[in-house]
From TrEMBL:
<dbReference type="Pfam" id="PF02308">
    <property type="entry name" value="MgtC"/>
</dbReference>
<keyword id="KW-1133">Transmembrane helix</keyword>
<protein>
    <submittedName>
        <fullName>MgtC/SapB family protein</fullName>
    </submittedName>
</protein>
<keyword id="KW-1003">Cell membrane</keyword>
<dbReference type="InterPro" id="IPR003416">
    <property type="entry name" value="MgtC/SapB/SrpB/YhiD_fam"/>
</dbReference>
<keyword id="KW-0472">Membrane</keyword>
<feature type="domain" description="ACT">
    <location>
        <begin position="155"/>
        <end position="235"/>
    </location>
</feature>
<dbReference type="GO" id="GO:0005886">
    <property type="term" value="C:plasma membrane"/>
</dbReference>
<feature type="transmembrane region" description="Helical">
    <location>
        <begin position="41"/>
        <end position="64"/>
    </location>
</feature>
<comment type="similarity">
    <text>Belongs to the MgtC/SapB family.</text>
</comment>
<feature type="transmembrane region" description="Helical">
    <location>
        <begin position="12"/>
        <end position="29"/>
    </location>
</feature>
<dbReference type="InterPro" id="IPR002912">
    <property type="entry name" value="ACT_dom"/>
</dbReference>
<feature type="transmembrane region" description="Helical">
    <location>
        <begin position="76"/>
        <end position="94"/>
    </location>
</feature>
<dbReference type="InterPro" id="IPR045865">
    <property type="entry name" value="ACT-like_dom_sf"/>
</dbReference>
<keyword id="KW-0812">Transmembrane</keyword>
<dbReference type="InterPro" id="IPR049177">
    <property type="entry name" value="MgtC_SapB_SrpB_YhiD_N"/>
</dbReference>
Amino acid sequence: MTNPWVIDQLHITIRLLLALFLGGLIGFEREVSSHAAGLRTHILVCVGSALVMLLSMYGFSAFVNEVNVRLDPSRLAAQVISGIGFLGAGTIMFNGRSITGLTTAASLWVVAGIGLAIGAGFYYPAILSCFMVLISLWILNKVEHKYFSGKKVRIIKIQATDQPGTLGLITTLLGKTNVDIRKIAMEDQGNGDEDEVGCIHITFYVTIPKPAVIVTILEEINKISGVIGVTIEKSKV
């Protein structure tokens, strides 16, 4: 009968390489999408989790027959699940009224679970979970962008000369295009010279009903007197 507390080097290598591969697949998707935690981070988390699981299951096999020693293969694995939260929290950012990084934090947590499953030799659930995560991150992301993009908070950054009425003109224009303004922030970039007109930076947090009107909004804002430059950024999750 095979000893459940012993594993050979071949199977150790297979499990760690599989963890590298599956973690790399998910990390590659995050890397392509330009998120904070990308290819290397996901590989390290998945391989590290698999290593901890291997250590928890087989690293203390020499003490199995010792008196008053009882081994629990899940003892170190449980700490990985709670500990990975600190790493995931580092990818979450709060900016105005939008929160970014939640999906990446969740992918790190799932990758840790996949690594633990591989380390325990639970291959099928690990591989199946990996492909389910890839479907969620890639295919469902495209569906979300196509059908739910209007609910996404976008950031419009405008640089303009400091003159009366500019903010009102921009707000009126956004209202005509059915843009929902969530928050406005304005920063004075005056040069300290009373004889010269300073600059202001205006930031709008908005939801845009149709992505097709973004180009029109940019063109119309640029036509407003005093506007120097305008950019629109989309919050990433």
